[in-house]
Amino acid sequence: xxxxxxxxxxxxxxxxxxxxxxxxxxxxxxxxxxxxxxxxxxxxxxxxxxxxxxxxxxxxxxxxxxxxxxxxxxxxxxxxxxxxxxxxxxxxxxxxxxxxxxxxxxxxxxxxxxxxxxxxxxxxxxxxxxxxxxxxxxxxxxxxxxxxxxxxxxxxxxxxxxxxxxxxxxxxxxxxxxxxxxxxxxxxxxxxxxxxxxxxxxxxxxxxxxxxxxxxxxxxxxxxxxxxxxxxxxxxxxxxxxxxxxxxxxxxxxxxxxxxxxxxxxxxxxxxxxxxxxxxxxxxxxxxxxxxxxxxxxxxxxxxxxxxxxxxxxxxxxxxxxxxxxxxxxxxxxxxxxxxxxxxxxxxxxxxxxxxxxxxxxxxxxxxxxxxxxxxxxxxxxxxxxxxxxxxxxxxxxxxxxxxxxxxxxxxxxxxxxxxxxxxxxxxxxxxxxxxxxxxxxxxxxxxxxxxxxxxxxxxxxxxxxxxxxxxxxxxxxxx
Length: 480
Prior knowledge:
single chain, mainly alpha, Gyrase A, domain 2, PTS_EIIC, kinase, Glu_permease_IIB
């Protein structure tokens, strides 16, 4: 009998047995189930298993938090359940879509595009944040000079790091078209080539179009096409990527296999590039500009505080639904249009607020050793920008700390937007997010961060003593 045999048998029983499991995989800390009938899962019974630290359902998957030993437990569970170990996370995502409505599937598609890009975006955000510190903050010679101005080493580092920052953000369309090809199961190198054609050096840089007197063109005799690049543009890349993928998928069905290697790539890529520059590029740019103008105008208008309050309060629930993935596209569009984003600071503040509510719960439940194993790592990850463990493992389970965090996030967002705080880029959320804030706004953002820390902690303590808190503890069968 293995170390986790009893726990694995209990979990199998409480998720409805092997016949109720469509796909099961695991990540760094969680078991991910796609169940045929989610109503057969006994959530309370699962959470009462000694090894289990919490559960939640997201993107059509029933997820069970195990901890660092999840890989070993998964192997034991697979043997007992007889579900095999050949399923991949992609298999789970495909199966999970059967449990989603139309809106959830659309959001899932958007998440599939941006999720593979997150490591690069995080690195890019950190790099631009570091360049921000050494190149913009006057910390030397009585506050009159930056590190770059007094040190050749730091000047060289500042210039060198832009090589990476530019590759990530200016050439982002290459990553997007690759991610779409990967998602759609088409030829990924064609997606990369398509992306490169959108940002090629021979094109007029997107940032220089507004001030250009003469825009170069491709002259076909009967028609001319402007040679405009789409550096940092999100929507043109998304549209072009899907056109290429659907062309390739359609051509595979009609072109015989014996010649498909030659003709499918050619008749998919060439028309896709032409359509991208003639139709989709201009249309996507117009749509992206309209979206960014609406968001930016809304946040900088006299009613900006109201928009900030709504967004700050509702962002955490958006994470539950997965709709928060849409903000990546909006942030990136704002960066390309306005040289920064006033949306990202609110996201970082929401992360901090959720982590702060967990900090309060760590103190309130300090005698509960099992919960400490979940809450302490969850609070740390929240402060570093990853909110799901805290939200699903602690805050949503009790409800009142989740509400406290939403209120704290709302107040902090109002301060941020009301003060005109702008971030140079997106990147690591939570406390490290201050590195991405424009230098002149850092103190104001620090004030908003303080609010996002203090308000949720205080409010969580207060709500714990109310009827709402008492009912939460009774519902979970816990004592304080």
